[in-house]
Design goal:
This protein has helices at about 1-25, 25-50, 60-80, 80-105, 110-130, 155-175, 180-185, 190-195, 200-230, 240-250, 255-280, 285-300, 305-315, 385-395, 415-425, 440-445, 455-460, 465-480, 495-510, 525-545, 555-560, 580-585, 585-590; strands spanning about 140, 145, 150, 230, 345-360, 360-370, 375-380, 400-405, 410, 425, 515-520, 545-550, 565-570, 570-575. It is an alpha/beta fold. The two termini are about 45 Å apart. Bound molecules: adenosine-5'-diphosphate and magnesium ion (MG). Adenosine-5'-diphosphate binds next to strand 6 and helix 14.
Length: about 600
């Protein structure tokens, strides 16, 4: 908790310094601070997009430009208030980001960065060629902002507005990252399958993030236009985009404050270079690009986590980078609503003739079985028998080559994984999919994603308090169930692998599942821990949760399950009670010589 108090102290000191700065600084320094504030909004979006979400954009300056030109054009030609210009600018920026995002975000790999370069180039070209936007000479005499009787016409008067907006934007993003949509955003790097397993759509999460980052750039563009009262194409070209990216990297993609520190570093460096470089050569402008490229390379080599990463190492802050543990205040909200469990004994899962081929390999070959409500069914077989693939087919993680799957009376064949998850099927993975830099609590809270509603706006404005408390309580309850509640605020990456598997079970349980699908949950656990896990699973069965489990430890699984399905070379060998399976010669032959 001491760390948190320190954070508030540092934040308070920063606010005080910023509030007093214009009283002691000269005009030049105040304008520089204005530029830093405006740029930090763009960098903040990039810390979100690139640092948190893992998507690189080389086109952020284009969004700044769209907003700047939008408000410049509207206020000049229509003579309306700059505040209407803000609305117009944000609408246009948001719509542009939505369109670009929808075109590019489904494409994987390097497509996004490449297409943002193309996009950045073309927008700057566009500004330079439209008559109504003043072509290359741009537009000048843009109206200043005014707040009632105050006209914010010079650097000193607009200063406080800029930094107020920066403060609000920081608060918004801070809140956002500690919320339901924020946890989904922070999980993007874990891959689409992880998100789908909790009922979230990675594409939509990424699109929302892209638009949010663009809107922050749009806000900056609007401020830019009315602070400088002049727009021209060059501040919005690809070179500018790279500078914004450099700010985010220099400050540290690992934390929101990196955006502020990074834009300050780069802006001051840029200013310094503009003074020094012309003394070295007449082509100072070009040298600036070289100096920045060199800085970029140095950063990537020696200080990947940027200035704030360095500070974090010095202060050894032990908490999740984006989410200092916030214990919601007292007052007991209604718990999250639970789904009605099916009557025990009714059929909830039915797999009929499931086939999955990988090229010539038939990993699952015509397998059929059923699962009834309230039982634990074990799926066993030697390594490579096709068990994990079978789980991927059942949960919708992989499409079937042939066959059908029904879940809760619904044909879910070909249904996207996230929809199957939302119906009440929660899973864990043989190869653990946790977010190592998120706390245990946040990892489990992600599991409750589809049980809550709040989006970016409600989360950023902190209108999600009740829901967050419900999610928090639910996550804590599941952590208690698996005996990890006292470590709720530690990072998931600090757990041993075996315990990480157990944590995945808690995440699955946070979704309030009807059917829990567990792929080797006991692997890597010690005897005592296995016993505890067995107890938890038996208790879940008593509560009416149905479980389908792959497990290699025969003693463990025999004591636990009601029925076993045995697979070998992709086919179903037999299905019977544990004792009968243990005695079966075919099973012993299948396991003979294989490592289990
Ligand atoms: P198990 O979980 O029973 O050990 P798996 O389902 O992981 O077995 O694998 C079954 C077979 O399918 C193996 O031969 C494996 O190499 C193959 N396999 C699994 N996933 C893939 C994939 N994505 N691409 C190609 N082959 C795969
Ligand atoms: Mg497996």
């Amino acid at each position: 908790m001491n760390g948190r108090r320190n954070h508030w102290f540092v934040a308070g000191a920063a606010v005080a310094v910023l509030a007093l700065a214009p009283l002691v600084l000269g005009n030049f320094a105040v304008s520089l601070l204005n530029d830093i504030g405006i740029a930090s909004l763009v960098a903040l979006g990039l810390v979100l997009l690139t640092g948190v979400g893992g998507a690189t954009s080389f086109g952020q300056a284009a969004f700044v430009g769209i907003a700047a030109y939008a408000t410049a054009w509207l206020t000049k030609t229509q003579g309306v208030s700059p505040w209407l210009g803000l609305l117009f600018a944000l609408l246009l920026t948001g719509a542009a980001a939505l369109a670009i995002g929808m075109l590019t975000l489904r494409l994987g790999g390097h497509f996004l960065p490449l297409s943002t370069i193309a996009w950045g180039l073309s927008i700057a070209l566009l500004f330079g060629n439209i008559e109504a936007l003043g072509r290359h000479s741009g537009m000048s005499n843009i109206a200043p902002l005014s707040l009632g009787p105050w006209v914010l016409a010079d650097a000193r008067s607009i200063y406080y507005l800029i930094w107020l907006i920066v403060g609000l934007a920081c608060g918004f993003t801070f809140n956002l990252l500690r919320s339901r949509p924020g946890r989904a955003i922070r999980s993007l790097r874990g891959g689409a399958t992880l998100l789908a397993s909790v009922g979230a759509d990675a594409y939509r999460v990424r699109l929302t993030l892209f638009v949010t980052a663009a809107l922050l750039a749009g806000l900056a563009g609007w401020l830019y236009a009315h602070a400088n009262r002049f727009v021209s194409p060059s501040p919005f070209d690809v070179r500018a985009s790279i500078e914004y990216l450099l700010m985010a990297v220099a400050g540290g993609l690992g934390q929101l404050t990196g955006a502020l520190v990074g834009s300050a570093l780069v802006m001051m460096l840029k200013n310094g270079l503009q003074d020094v470089l012309p003394l070295l050569s007449q082509r100072g402008g070009q040298l600036e690009g070289v100096a920045f490229a060199a800085l970029f390379i140095l950063l990537l080599h020696f200080a990947r986590s940027g200035a704030m990463g360095f500070v974090a190492r010095l202060t050894r802050s032990a908490h999740g980078r984006f989410a200092p543990p916030g214990t919601p205040r007292a007052g007991v909200p209604q718990p999250l609503t639970r789904r009605a469990l099916p009557t025990p004994g009714s059929e909830i899962l039915s797999v009929a003739g499931a086939v999955r081929r990988f090229g010539g390999l038939v990993a699952v070959n015509d397998v059929s079985f059923n699962v009834q409500a309230g039982e634990i069914v074990g799926l066993i077989g030697p390594n490579g028998a096709g068990k994990s693939t079978m789980f991927n087919l059942v949960t919708g993680t992989l499409p079937l080559t042939a066959g059908r799957v029904r879940f809760l009376g619904q044909d879910v064949t070909g249904m996207p994984q996230r929809q199957v998850a939302r119906l009440g099927m929660a899973r864990t993975f043989q190869h653990v999919k946790l977010r190592p830099n998120m706390t245990l609590l946040d990892n489990v809270a992600l599991g409750a994603h589809s049980r809550a509603r709040s989006g970016v706006l409600t989360a950023g404005l902190r209108l999600n308090r009740v829901e967050e408390r419900q999610i928090h309580d639910e996550a804590l309850r599941q952590l208690e169930r698996i005996g990890l509640a006292d470590r709720a605020d530690e990072l998931a990456g600090s757990l041993p692998l075996g315990t990480q598997r157990i944590l995945e079970i808690a995440r699955a349980l946070a979704a309030d599942p009807v059917l829990l699908v567990l792929d080797e949950p006991a692997a890597g656990l010690r005897r005592k821990e296995k016993q505890a896990l067995g107890d938890v699973l038996r208790k879940l069965r008593e509560e009416g949760v149905t479980i389908l489990i792959v497990e290699h430890d025969m003693d463990f699984v025999m004591k636990l399950v009601n029925r076993l399905v045995v697979m070998n070379f992709g086919s179903k060998l037999l299905e019977d009670l544990p004792a009968a399976v243990r005695a079966d010669e075919r099973v012993q032959a299948a396991y003979l010589g294989s490592v289990i």
